Amino acid sequence: xxxxxxxxxxxxxxxxxxxxxxxxxxxxxxxxxxxxxxxxxxxxxxxxxxxxxxxxxxxxxxxxxxxxxxxxxxxxxxxxxxxxxxxxxxxxxxxxxxxxxxxxxxxxxxxxxxxxxxxxxxxxxxxxxxxxxxxxxxxxxxxxxxxxxxxxxxxxxxxxxxxxxxxxxxxxxxxxxxxxxxxxxxxxxxxxxxxxxxxxxxxxxxxxxxxxxxxxxxxxxxxxxxxxxxxxxxxxxxxxxxxxxxxxxxxxxxxxxxxxxxxxxxxxxxxxxxxxxxxxxxxxxxxxxxxxxxxxxxxxxxxxxxxxxxxxxxxxxxxxxxxxxxxxxxxxxxxxxxxxxxxxxxxxxxxxxxxxxxxxxxxxxxxxxxxxxxxxxxxxxxxxxxxxxxxxxxxxxxxxxxxxxxxxxxxxxxxxxxxxxxxxxxxxxxxxxxxxxxxxxxxxxxxxxxxxxxxxxxxxxxxxxxxxxxxxxxxxxxxxxxxxxxxxxxxx
Length: 492
Description:
globular, 8-stranded mixed beta sheet, 492 residues, alpha+beta, 14% strand, single chain
């Protein structure tokens, strides 16, 4: 019989032991285990606050681990197939920043998948590095931007032998992924590291129904959001390394600079427990969640008015699919993804994100059949209320979700920490922005993938996409005008 989950989590065990001893606190934090809370707030928050400790004797130090945190990180490396792992309390964001800064210096180049998370571009800005962008392949069946074509990566490596590495996102927010083995071989043949933002794939490789992990396919550095599809608290993530191609000491120094010097022990403990849960339980841990997702997928298959992109055969940008991700579309075109999100949430079914076409539903190992049934009932209600059964269906969505078209391979793009401070900028109506250079990063959020970055020439297609997203109800980050009626551009 396996030992209890908590017994297999050294950091959680150390915290629990400290609390049981009930020592008098003459250290931060000031709430002293929640004792300062007003009576009406005592309850769930106080339970969390009992774990909210600091680097007192016996609880180790994230920035110089020698005890339970070091043991937790070694166990994480063993569980996820790495040679060395770091626990992150600032999310995959800090992992991506450290990953970029760990391989790139000022003026150096990195080959980067164009549809990456904003944190990758922020890392390039902090490094003062240049990006050579490889465009994603747009799946013609769904209109969604997937992974990159391996031939495009090989072309980038041939044209830019001075590059310091290749950074890809796999899988994307919608669960679409590509096989990384051949790309890893190509990158390694040049003596370079393959860096992977696997924020949405911390659970990969944990069950036969799940795709293979990036580490198992040869990636050198991998960042995972352990909170997204596993069980850590929000902001709980990990950075994993294997092989000799990356300077691990430099990576550790970057993390020491970027991560909080007062790390959250509840987040750290939740990371330790998330790993222990997976390691102790194995693939059985995922069965109920997979069954719940399968139930919804089958129910939607019986409602011809709705569609879920189904992965049936490998394509250049879509070679695997996360079964926990279901992107639902109204085939009649009556409801945009944003409208479908609003309708589902009126029934208490909270949606991860939406775009012009799809509402994205995220299941996990914690999903259960009762929730699946509630979701199906909501979709049936929406179908009836909008008389979708009486309307004509479209065989495939309009291609509004793709990134604006990019050349096969970009020229090297310099990233400056704040381009606006060195250039004059003006505000123009978004419809008049085509042909100008953007002075701001325009980020529909979620998913957090920039449509424009500072210094990029704005295409007519990009304006059309952004205006369509604005009208449909998308939210934006990085813009001076939150309504996106105007854009900041560089003055002529």
